[in-house]
Amino acid sequence: MHFKRFLDFKTNNSDNSLVIFNNNKIVFDKDSKSLVLQSMFLNIDYSEAIVVGIGENIDSQFLAVDVTNCNFDLNAHGYTSLIETDIRNILGSASPNEISIIGRAQHLLHWLKTSKFCGSCGSLNKFSSKEGAFFCPCAKDMIYPKISPCVIGIIIKDDQILLARNKLFPEGMFSALAGFVEASETLEETFKREIMEEVGLKVKNIEYFGSQPWPFPNQLMIAFKCEYKSGDIKVDGEEIVEADWFDVNNLPKIPPISSISGQLIKSYLEGR
Q: Residue 207 is inside which H or E element, if any?
């Protein structure tokens, strides 16, 4: 698939591939485990749906479709086992390609919904097919999809790593520390600040690991490894409710390797 943002989609093309959301849940086929559905087997009222093009092949388009305002019946289609679920429930079993597609779909739908009007004058924005972006006639400023950079990382101390539990995590789940980049900060400065704010530690030897788009709703996760320098764990009690040093042979429940945090932890375990 060639990534592209567009609104001039062809709803009559039976070869189109769709990523469908309903009431903030993703629709997928339980039997085939498919998250990308074929339009030829679906009956969608596009006049009531929110639709944005996310990519294309030679003969077909990939569309993100929000059917929340439609009369969408899970059983009124060629598929016989459509269900709805929170997107987080399927990320652990989705392939990297599927995560890329559904992440892009959710990200661009959020962009479409939040870019309808100009933030300066309140006028209805227009869409530039050339730029793949919205703009307002009052200023001609282009409104591209918002991307929010966020650092995430693990702290290494001898044969232990520091993992933390956010108040929104399921019971028993621990992960790497993370936080959003502030204006004028470098990624390394953000990483140090977030660690100090959330668990009260100083770190050293920060090393870049990798990155991953994370569509909740528009984050770009930038991952690091680092070493413990000094300090005692003091959780902030607001975002982080628990943090501890874990022996590599006795880890708590951690995120799946489909997430950058899971990949971070797995990489450390394999590289010891």
A: strand 202-214
CA distances from 92 to 82, 157, 161, 261 (A): 19, 28, 22, 12
**Residues of the chain scoring pLDDT < 70:** 272
Distance of CA 136 to the CA centre of its chain: 27
Indicate whether 257 and 153 sit together in one domain: yes
In the structure encoding, which two tokens stand for residue 155, read together?
Answer: 């702290």
- Same domain? 261 vs 155: yes
- Which pLDDT score, from 0 to 100, does residue 189 have? 98
* Amino acid identity at 224: F
Q: Based on the structure, what is the number of domains in the chain?
A: 2
Q: State the residue range of the domain holding 107.
A: 2-114
Q: What is the pLDDT of residue 272?
A: 63
Q: What is the pLDDT of residue 33?
A: 85
Q: Residue 54 falls within a domain, yes or no?
A: yes
6: Cβ contacts below 8 Å, ≥ 6 apart: 52, 53, 56, 61, 129, 132
Q: Can you give the pLDDT at residue 238? A: 87
- The tens digit of pLDDT for each residue in 69-84 reads 998 889 888 898 999 9
Q: In this structure, is residue 11 part of a structural domain?
A: yes
Give residue 101's Cα distance to chain centre.
10
Q: Considering only CA atoms, which of 85, 49, 52, 51 is closest in space to residue 69?
A: 49
- Do 152 and 235 have their domain in common? yes
Alpha helix segments (H runs only) across the chain: 96-114, 187-199, 260-271
Q: 163 and 95 in one domain?
A: no
